[in-house]
């Protein structure tokens, strides 16, 4: 199988932590051939070469004038993937029924990486919502056997009206619900680039469609709008 030659635009924190380690972990699929940096993003979307395969994480989409214009371009195929495999597994197996509302948050006590987040004015793509809200990173190499493995003490509590997993849940006599610490599935960020290689070589379809990626960004935009206006806002 021919190697896919990779050119990387920009060599900052995102590239070094969220992309390059996973590309290098698949030497039988990818070969990094070039880096391009210290150049302004193209002002005209039409300057993108047609037929070029690329991936972009969310901060890049803001450079395309608007994310709507970016995802509306029929000549650009984009995948943005920030998944919670355990939650996906539970939903796909109907453990949670018809999900109406979800609350996801970080329980941290002013960690060191937040100390420099002191900008007073917002610019598109800045802030925690466009940062760790979209992705959780691990300091291990993706080839390390511990990569993506969460300590059992951090397992989430699964509460259901019927017993979904008898290995982790027990009937709570007070609530009449089945409650237990459900094991967190191993994360698999490497799967993003495995799927990308397969899709480029026409072996499978891309895992996340561009429209789904755009919806993720729109959710963040609406969240900021809701906060600024002090009210719930409809999806639009």
TrEMBL record:
InterPro entries: Gfo/Idh/MocA_oxidoreduct, NAD(P)-bd_dom_sf. GO terms for molecular function: oxidoreductase activity. Transmembrane segments: none annotated. The keyword Zinc does not apply. Keywords: Oxidoreductase. PANTHER family: CONSERVED EXPRESSED OXIDOREDUCTASE (EUROFUNG), CONSERVED EXPRESSED OXIDOREDUCTASE (EUROFUNG)-RELATED. Belongs to the Gfo/Idh/MocA family. This is Oxidoreductase. It comes from Knufia peltigerae.
């Amino acid at each position: 199988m021919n190697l896919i030659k990779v050119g990387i635009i920009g060599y900052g924190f995102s590239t070094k932590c969220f992309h390059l380690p996973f590309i290098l972990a698949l030497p039988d699929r990818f070969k990094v051939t070039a880096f391009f940096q210290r150049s302004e993003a193209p002002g005209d979307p039409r300057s993108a070469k047609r037929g070029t395969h690329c991936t972009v994480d969310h901060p890049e989409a803001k450079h395309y004038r608007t994310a709507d214009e970016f995802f509306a371009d029929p000549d650009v195929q984009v995948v943005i993937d920030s998944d919670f495999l355990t939650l996906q597994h539970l939903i796909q197996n109907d453990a949670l029924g018809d999900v109406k509302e979800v609350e996801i948050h970080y329980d941290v006590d002013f960690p060191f990486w937040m100390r420099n987040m002191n900008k007073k004015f917002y610019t598109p793509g800045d802030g925690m919502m466009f940062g760790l809200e979209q992705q959780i990173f691990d300091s291990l190499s993706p080839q390390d056997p511990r990569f993506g493995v969460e300590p059992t003490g951090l397992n989430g509590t699964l509460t259901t009206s019927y017993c979904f997993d008898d290995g982790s849940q027990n009937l709570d006599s007070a609530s009449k619900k089945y409650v237990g610490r459900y094991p967190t599935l191993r994360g698999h960020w490497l799967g993003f680039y495995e799927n990308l290689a397969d899709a480029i070589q026409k072996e499978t379809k891309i895992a996340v469609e561009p429209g789904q990626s755009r919806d993720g960004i729109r959710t963040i935009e609406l969240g900021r709008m809701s906060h600024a206006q002090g009210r719930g806002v409809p999806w639009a």
